[in-house]
Amino acid sequence: NAGVTQTPKFQVLKTGQSMTLQCAQDMNHEYMSWYRQDPGMGLRLIHYSVGAGITDQGEVPNGYNVSRSTTEDFPLRLLSAAPSQTSVYFCASRPQGAGNTIYFGEGSWLTVV
Amino acid sequence: ELKVEQNPLFLSMQEGKNYTIYCNYSTTSDRLYWYRQDPGKSLESLFVLLSNGAVKQEGRLMASLDTKARLSTLHITAAVHDLSATYFCAVDESGAGSYQLTFGKGTKLSVIP
User: Fold this and answer.
1) B3–chain A Cβ distance below 8 A for any pair
2) Do A45 and B102 touch (CB under 8 A)?
3) How far does CA A89 lie from the centroid of its chain?
4) Which of B49, B25, B28, B48 is nearest to B105 (CA)?
5) Contact (CB, 8 A) for B109 and A57
6) Over the stretch A73-111, which tens digit does the pLDDT of each residue have?
7) Do A44 and B103 touch (CB under 8 A)?
């Protein structure tokens, strides 16, 4: 059981480049989300999805796109990378229903130079 | 807008001592999560608290929730070095279909021999 798998683990981008962070889960969870973690800021929600074909914005969505074509995958796309997007990105998933445990991926460390 | 405040943000304590981390939040919610994060690692789920008065214990950690006071506590009993980590609380906003977690900034705990 792989749980929540994120790739790549580390990435360096140049300003203006685009890239996609991949997230996949094998637990058939309906809910998936992306967070970013910055020093002293805790985790902040970027985008989330409550099922295939349904996505919505979180607290800090600007500069990011998401799509959910399958239950398993929830990629996060950076449209034109900026140094302010240097962060650690976590994907999370959980099954439907209040109070269920939320599972986090191992994280993707992104540096934009 | 939901605000989640943890205090203290930094905590240095001696082995064998007891201490409490506080998590205050600003809107109605009856779903609160506690996570542990080791440096460079993902988030590990510790507790899920789902109702007023909920109390859960695991080893030297005990978490409680008072929804009327909008307060959760994480109590550490007889601290040991292995508990050194950053602890986050996160609040799940009440409402049908709500899935957004708002995190506190974290409490970095250092247990000193």
Assistant:
1) no
2) yes
3) 6
4) B25
5) no
6) 999 999 999 999 999 999 999 888 766 788 999 999 999
7) yes
Pick from B48, B50, B103: which is nearest to A43 by CB? B103
Beta-sheet strand order (sheet of B4-7)? B4-7, B19-25, B71-76, B61-66, B55-58
Reported as a pLDDT band with limits 50, 70 and 90, residue B96 is very low
Q: Which residue has the tokens 């009440």?
A: B94
Q: State the smallest CA–CA distance between residue A31 and chain B in angstroms.
A: 8
Residues in chain B closer than 8 A to A40 (CB atoms)? 105
Q: What is the pLDDT of residues B31-76, one digit of tens each?
A: 899 999 999 999 999 999 988 889 999 999 999 999 899 999 999 9
Question: How far is it, in rounded angstroms, from Cα B29 to Cα B68?
Answer: 9
- Nearest CB to B45; choose among A31, A42, A101: A101
Kindly state whether B106 is in contact with chain A, defined as any CB-CB distance less than 8 angstroms: yes
User: What rounded mean pLDDT belongs to chain A?
Assistant: 93
- The residues of A whose Cβ lies within 8 A of any Cβ of B are 31, 33, 35, 40-45, 48, 50, 58-59, 90, 98-107
CA distance A82 to A16: 6
Q: How far apart are CA B74 and CA B56, in angstroms?
A: 10
Q: Which residue in chain B is spatially nearest to A93 when comparing CA positions?
A: B99
Extract the tokens encoding B52.
């007023």
Hey, which residues does B62 pair with through a beta bridge? Answer: B57, B75
C-beta separation of B80 from B60 below 8 A: yes
